[in-house]
Amino acid sequence: MSDIIDIGPKKWWATAAMCLAAIAFSLDLTVLNLALPTLSTSLHASTGQLQWIADAYALILAVLTLPAGMLGDRFGRKRLIIMALIIFGTASALCAYSTTVTMLIASRLLLGVGAAFILPLAMSIMPIYFRPEERTKALAILMGGVFLAYPLGPILGGWLLTHFWWGSVFLINVPVVLIAIAAIGALLPESKSSKKHRIDFTGIALSSLGLTGITYGAIEAESNGWSNHWVIASLVAGVVLLIAFFYWEKRKTHRREDSLIDIHLFESPAFTWGTILMTTVNFSLFGLLFGLPQYLEVVRGYKPLTAGYYLLPMIVGLMIGSVGTARLGKKLDTRIAVAIGYALMAIGLLIGTRTTLGVHGIFIVLWTGLIGLGLGVAMPNVATAAISPLSAEHSAAGTALISAVRQVGGTLGIALLGTVLGVSYRSQLHTLALPSTIASTIRSSVTAGTAVANKMGNSLLLHIVRLAFVHGMTVMLFICGCIALTAMVLGLSFLPRATKKMTGSKLEQ
């Protein structure tokens, strides 16, 4: 492979350093959730402000991920990822020591600026330093860190909040970032495109505004509903702008002008379906991580740290699956590995639909462990398929496109599946013979419902509210299971046995 740069065993140590950076990046998507009640008290934050403390990070990720890839190809991937880690570490410290809500939201925005560069640039080294037969193992290490951090976030957050102040959930990033910077600086050589590409400012503007519109609309839909006129306007504007972006990039690609993304990438079934299948992982997983902690903490009444422990089986399953698929390597056909992974996820999710109000904890351990195992098998193989057509010349731009689609998929997953959960929950409360104000509060969320029932000392109402949430969660898990089954079929049907390689802006035939 003429475009592979051989740096020997150092590439594995550099990948481990990238994995550390990816863990820090992913932790901040989930670790904050448990700290929100504390922030409400400590910083006197309103509900709307709490929402933006949580969502500012995701919004900036949507805006900057695509340009991050293009800039990495142009100015140097190592240089930019180190700069991104410095920004990320600095912003983490600023978040930890914020004294006002405004300062914390601004610091979260800066955190998102650094994070937007981390994952696409980390993934972009795979086509440059690893031979095709090594990439599944390398991606299992990198993406294992990404997905490991999602369930690890609530566990780590619960432990830190039990023993330290709320700023510790951000400060934990700083030593991780420092280690990653030192290791990447020492082990990874610089790489960038051999050509000086012009910056596609129009493409950046269209993509950033379009992704912002969709992400903002999804965020607002969580609290205001999908029928809200601002939500509709934001989503429609986002879709229109992304359609305009696609046609702009198509025009520039056909004219052989420098573009933000290479439309020819979508001619590769491996890239297209790999990206779609990676997005379905985010969609289902984020929905699960939205519903299960509420069930454990609010319905079952566990403390945050205890609830976090119930996510450990998912982490163990993920590690076993990742190690297993990395060792099998080329012995297992990618399509079969992906199908097995999604089948295990689907089985776990569908078993989860049998969760009841008083189900034994071992039952939860069983189905969450199966989901983690399936995730560990499917994820590195899907990621390998997605990046396999990328050339070293445009690796960062291609991986940025994958990351952007994944991020938007995760945000929409939380919003859509959260809506399903909320509607299903409220459907079980329609017979409540209570004053309208109290009934409205109970229907707003299971947290509010249990608080009202406890305050009234009404054990029957408390039981009804809890049962209603369990019903909503099982409906959501059923939908997630169906998504995983669909992904299994799509992987078997459309992922190719062999992939075509990108050279410049064309696919090799």
Topology:
Layout: H1 10-30, H2 36-42, H3 47-75, H4 77-96, H5 101-124, H6 126-129, H7 132-163, H8 168-171, H9 173-187, H10 201-224, H11 229-254, H12 269-299, H13 304-309, H14 312-328, H15 334-352, H16 361-387, H17 395-427, H18 436-444, H19 446-456, H20 459-494, E1 502-503, E2 506-507
Antiparallel strand pairs: 1-2
Helix pairs in contact: 1-5, 1-7, 1-9, 3-4, 3-5, 3-10, 3-17, 4-5, 4-9, 5-17, 7-14, 7-16, 10-11, 10-17, 12-16, 12-17, 12-20, 14-16, 15-16, 15-20, 17-20, 18-19, 19-20
Detailed description of the structure:
By secondary structure, this protein is mainly α. The chain folds into 2 domains: 10-199 and 258-428 and 467-507, MFS general substrate transporter like domains (Growth Hormone, Chain: A), CATH 1.20.1250.20; 200-257. Helix content is 78%, strand content 1%. It has a two-stranded antiparallel ribbon. A hairpin with a 2-residue loop joins β1 and β2. α5 packs across α17. The longest helix is centred in the last third of the chain and has 36 residues, at 459-494.
Which properties best describe this structure?
509 residues, Growth Hormone, Chain: A, 2 domains, two-stranded antiparallel ribbon, 78% helix, 1% strand, globular
Strand content: under 5%
CATH architecture of the largest domain: Up-down Bundle
Report the biggest beta sheet as strand number plus sense, adding barrel if it closes. Answer: 2 strands, antiparallel
| Gap from first CA to last CA | 16 Å
Query: Count of DSSP helices?
Result: 20
Helix/strand class: mainly alpha
The percent of residues in helical segments reads: over 70%
* CATH fold title of the largest domain: Growth Hormone, Chain: A
CATH class of the largest domain, named: Mainly Alpha
The stretches of 5 or more residues where confidence is low (pLDDT under 50) are 501-509
Taking all Cα atoms into account, the compactness measure Rg is 22 Å
The H-and-E topology, N to C, reads as HHHHHHHHHHHHHHHHHHHHEE
CATH H-tier superfamily of the largest domain: MFS general substrate transporter like domains
Shape: globular
- If you average the pLDDT, what whole number results? 81
Overall number of strands: 2
Strand order of the largest sheet: 1-2
How many structural domains?
A: 2
